[in-house]
Design brief:
Shape: elongated
Radius of gyration: 26 Å
Largest sheet: 10 strands, mixed
Number of strands: 17
Strand content: 5-15%
Strand order of the largest sheet: 8-17-16-15-14-13-12-9-10-11
Distance between the termini: 45 Å
Helix content: 25-40%
CATH superfamily of the largest domain: Ribokinase
Structural class: alpha/beta
């Protein structure tokens, strides 16, 4: 507990310094629950008092951690016990301080705040304290799933002990965590490998494929694309264009003649196929193809092409990126090297069609749970698009990437992501991902490596959007991909 308190206090000091605030005389209020989380907050406040800060504790329960409270009072802290009668006064008092530490509920809590504590946090949401530091997890956020139980006080910083909690890396909880900070408490080497992780820039540099001196267009990966339709021709150009600038050696397009002519005009590097395609190592299907209609009408032939390609890819053991209209064409079980790319509404429809009735709102409130469920049920890797992109492996491991910008919520952005993922799948198609290499060096298990490939794509896509600024269009994001790959790819080795 002392190590956790030290890490929490150090984070408060660091944040104040970064904001140009004096430490001596700074005012700090800790909202302390009755458990160990409250104890961490009280011990941290005692350490801050020793540095000359004015500290106040609002005790939100009938009892508090006895040793921590004694240390806090001995350091000169002031104590207030929260009641229904004084909740408004204490909210104003807490919001006026330089720092507010949220240490009410810890990682073991289930459910949200109740009674005066819930009212206090609701008031603080409106009062907007200057700096909120959450202790291990914002009170009301599920540490394992990111599910939010209202009310929750948004943090500017969340100081996690031992490891960043999964709920801080998954929506909607991530939106309330602010910036996660890890405070080491000496148990890290005894903890199991996290089932939710995030790739950083160094990981991406290690995993991004790069061509070698002896490579040619076929060895670099050939991607086949069945995307776009007479109704949505732009999706074909965005997917093919994105794949072409994301490292694929060749892109072959299959689609209606009218769409194919537009693809060739916009992306002259592409190979437009009118019959059986030539050599292909990975596939991208579904972007810009409407879901099958109830009467089975397939006027432009794209559903037929997608079905045929899915069957051929499954028989040949080829990777595939499956998006939008092709999600409803999948077999009951898929290979893990198939990457499904639904948004929340598409995932709800996908699961409901397979016997788990769920709404879009439910997926958005528990995305980590439903992404894992879809991967386990289908056998595929599932990339759930959102403010935080979750990539679930059938094993249960999830990669969480949030490099994107809200400006990426624009038409065609998902098509660009699909093309990028397809290019990566083609480049890795004939590489034995279970033979070690950079995946093993990063501790990524063989069964999770296609999920890692998808996470690389999600991160590059998000960074490309961020590099453009805002507002963005899908075409501008596409144009930003090569620079991001160049920047991240320094030091990469050929696959």
């Amino acid at each position: 507990m002392q190590r956790a308190a030290h890490g929490l206090a150090a984070a408060v000091v660091r944040e104040l310094k970064q904001r140009g605030r004096r430490l001596y005389g700074a005012s700090v209020t800790v909202l302390a629950g009755k458990g160990n989380n409250g104890g961490d907050g009280l011990f941290a406040a005692a350490k801050l008092a020793a540095r000359g800060m004015r500290t106040t504790a609002v005790l939100t329960a009938d009892s508090a951690h006895p040793e921590a409270l004694a240390a806090f009072l001995a350091a000169g802290g002031r104590e207030h016990r929260l009641t229904a009668e004084n909740v408004e006064d204490l909210a104003v008092l807490a919001a006026a301080d330089d720092v507010l530490i949220d240490a009410i509920l810890g990682t073991g809590a289930r459910g949200g705040l109740r009674g005066p504590a819930a009212e206090l946090v609701s008031l603080l949401q409106d009062l907007k304290p200057a700096l909120v530091v959450a202790c291990d997890i914002p009170s009301g956020v599920d540490a394992d799933t990111g599910e939010v139980h209202w009310p929750v006080l948004p943090g500017d910083v969340t100081v996690s002990f031992g490891g960043i909690k999964a709920g801080l890396l998954a929506d909607p909880g991530e939106g309330y965590a602010g910036r996660p900070v890890l405070a080491e408490i000496g148990i890290e080497d005894r903890l199991p490998m996290a089932s939710l992780r995030r790739l950083d820039a160094a990981d991406l540099a290690a995993l991004l494929p790069a061509p070698g001196r002896r490579d040619h267009k076929y060895s670099r990966g050939v991607l086949g694309v069945v995307a776009g339709s007479e109704r949505y021709p732009g999706a074909a150009m965005l997917t093919v264009g994105s794949a072409s600038v994301s490292g694929a050696g060749m892109v072959r397009y299959l689609g209606p003649d009218a769409v194919a002519r537009q693809v060739l005009a916009r992306v002259p590097e592409a190979i437009v196929e009118s019959g059986e395609p030539g050599r292909v190592q990975a596939w991208l299907l579904g972007s810009g193809i409407p879901a099958p209609s109830a009467d089975g009408d397939d006027g432009d032939g794209q559903h037929r092409r997608a079905r045929e390609v899915l069957a051929a890819a499954q028989a040949a053991g080829q990777p595939a990126v499956v998006d939008a209209g092709a999600l409803s064409l999948l077999p009951e079980r898929c290979p893990d090297k198939w990457i499904l790319t639904p948004h929340a509404g598409e995932l709800a429809a996908f699961l409901s069609a397979r016997g788990t009735s769920v709404s879009r709102d439910e997926v958005e409130s528990r995305p980590l749970h439903f992404a894992r469920l879809a991967a386990a049920d289908s056998g595929a890797t599932v990339l759930l698009k959102g403010a935080t992109t979750l990539v679930a492996s059938p094993s249960g491991t999830v990669f969480s990437q949030s490099e994107g910008t809200p400006w990426l919520a624009t038409a065609g952005s998902g098509d660009v992501l699909a093309g990028l993922l397809g290019a990566l799948a083609a480049q890795y198609a004939e590489t034995a991902l279970d033979d070690g290499g950079p995946f093993a060096a990063l501790g990524i298990a063989p069964e999770d490596r296609w999920a890692a490939v998808a996470a690389v794509g999600a991160s590059v896509h998000g960074r490309a959007g961020g590099s453009v600024g805002g507002p963005v269009t899908a075409r501008s994001v596409l144009g930003g991909i090569p620079a991001v790959i160049r920047k991240l790819g320094k030091g990469t080795t050929p696959v």
